[in-house]
Design a protein that fits this description.
With 342 residues, this protein is α+β, with helices and mostly antiparallel strands. Helix content is 60%, strand content 19%.
């Protein structure tokens, strides 16, 4: 019986004296409550029954900061939560300087999160997430250094305004969208009006150009008509006038009256015509009685110098000849009427 008791005591002493530390851990050793040293990874023998060890995980740990209610600088209530990534750098300080380093860091993160949000406007808390993370980490780093803990990263997960603020923001967003839609609609109407005015302007220009071209063509037609009339009169010449005069005298001679009054111009023209009659006893220089030509100034005025070019611009020569025949026929009729009235 005594042997079994002694064996049990030896087993308990060995178990209490042997410490096996994992590769990711460090342990703080105390003997009779006094801190002695840190035990690294491996097998360690410690005084049995009077030794105690406190384990510290040396890996980066994630600490969740519970959702916190805060008031922004512009008095807007929001709720926010975050995640802290911390790592024990000095297990001795973490054991001696703070009771529970993880809980202490988490609580410090809560208060720092509320303080940082309280120093910012609502719009900044919603849009400047990186700045919030940096400020929280900066505020936490100073006290945690004394605890042997380093805050490697801070990530704010969510910042949510209250329901009333969310409704107001939605109304503001809707109003902004309506304003932009009205601006775009006004810009579209203005652009449409500009395009319409530009189109009307171009249409007016084209219409004016067409009217101008029509007037030019009409004027050219009138000029050609005038030139053709002048050309017709020129082709008749003095001989045609004398022939018409002789026909008129013949018709007068057939009347019962024996006394006639002739204009001086007609008698002069008859005299000139008589010089060229066969067997005339009036001396002559042998010059022929031809159609008189217009002088240079009159020819330019009537456009006779470029009559061929003007006629070439007409579409069909047959139409010009037809118009010329109509003009000559009309001129003959008017001259006959004039002779009969005389």
């Amino acid at each position: 019986m005594a042997g079994l008791l002694a064996l049990a005591v030896v087993a308990a002493a060995v178990n209490s004296a042997v410490e096996i530390v994992d590769a990711t851990e460090k342990r703080a050793l105390t003997v009779f409550g006094e801190y002695r040293k840190l035990l690294g990874p491996g097998l360690h023998f410690v005084p049995p029954f009077v030794s105690r060890t406190h384990t510290f995980d040396m890996r980066t740990r994630m600490l969740d900061v519970p959702r916190q209610e805060a008031i922004t600088r512009d008095n807007s209530p929001v709720t926010a939560d975050a995640v802290l990534y911390v790592r024990v750098m000095d297990a001795k300080k973490a054991y001696l300087e703070v009771e529970d380093h993880e809980r202490a860091v988490a609580n410090l993160g809560q208060t720092t999160l509320r303080a940082v949000i309280g120093d910012m406007d609502l719009d900044a808390t919603l849009s400047r997430r990186e700045e919030i993370n940096a400020r929280i980490r900066e505020e936490i780093d100073r006290p945690t250094d004394d605890w042997g803990v380093r805050v490697e990263s801070v990530e704010v997960q969510e910042v949510m305004p209250s329901a009333g603020v969310v409704d107001a923001m939605e109304e503001q967003t809707s109003a902004e969208r309506r304003r932009r839609a009205m601006i775009l609609e006004a810009q579209g109407e203005r652009r449409s009006a500009v395009e319409r005015a530009e189109g009307e302007k171009q249409s007016n220009i084209i219409r004016a150009q067409g009217e101008k071209q029509s007037q030019i063509l009409e004027a050219q037609g009138d000029a050609v008509s005038t030139v053709l009339r002048a050309k017709s009169a020129e082709s008749m010449g003095e001989r045609a006038v004398i022939d018409k005069g002789m026909e008129t005298l013949e018709s007068i001679g057939q009347g019962e009256s024996t006394t006639f009054v002739l204009p001086q111009e007609l008698s002069s023209m008859l005299g000139r015509y008589g010089k060229h009659l066969t067997g005339s006893d009036v001396a002559t220089d042998g010059a022929r009685l031809d159609s008189l030509e217009f002088d240079e100034e009159t020819g330019k005025l009537l456009g006779l110098d470029d009559i061929e070019a003007t006629l070439a611009e007409m579409d069909e020569g047959g139409a010009v000849l037809s118009e010329l025949e109509d003009i000559e026929g009309g001129a003959s009729d008017r001259e006959l009427e004039f002779d009969e009235s005389e």
